[in-house]
Amino acid sequence: QQQVKQSPQSLIVQKGGISIINCAYENTAFDYFPWYQQFPGKGPALLIAIRPDVSEKKEGRFTISFNKSAKQFSLHIMDSQPGDSATYFCAASKWTGNQFYFGTGTSLTVIP
Amino acid sequence: GAVVSQHPSRVICKSGTSVKIECRSLDFQATTMFWYRQFPKQSLMLMATSNEGSKATYEQGVEKDKFLINHASLTLSTLTVTSAHPEDSSFYICSARDGRFYNEQFFGPGTRLTVL
Predict the structure, then answer these.
(1) Chain A residues close to B26, C-beta within 8 Å
(2) N or C: which end of chain A has fewer CB within 10 A?
């Protein structure tokens, strides 16, 4: 069973536009939700993360929105740039746990 | 801070040989390290979790005799793919947990293994 579902699988956005990637999780015990950015041939890099005590977290152009009742969280990339073109993974875990459950990834392409 | 390195970044080997991949935490002590496998355009699949000084915990379906993991120190974990076969060709990524940041995992750059 897929613990974390991610959509869309791929996304094409115009430069300057807003990119939105959504994730939904099953386990209500999850309380840590990071987003990772991965470029081809590289390992994932932590982008931003949120815990359920807040509904939104913003770092620069990246914002996580979190809806605990719906068990959903999303990544918003404002003013998207070609350099943002990468694959984005959401993940969920227990703060005290070991295992991260990753979404299936979203390939983002920002066209100039 | 929180930098994780992997070596080698790319390796090509013949079928039947063994390959060792190193994962190092460069500026922190990692009590727990994780090994993932990633196929092209797919998500990360956790293979095993290793804690310093103890045996690794393997995920269901991962052959522990084929994928040997050693976490000998707080800054080094190794994954040895024994008797590699073409189906073992993949992108292997390690991550490490920095106790200062509790649950956050920091990923290495990955190792591309190609078995001929």
Answers:
(1) none
(2) N
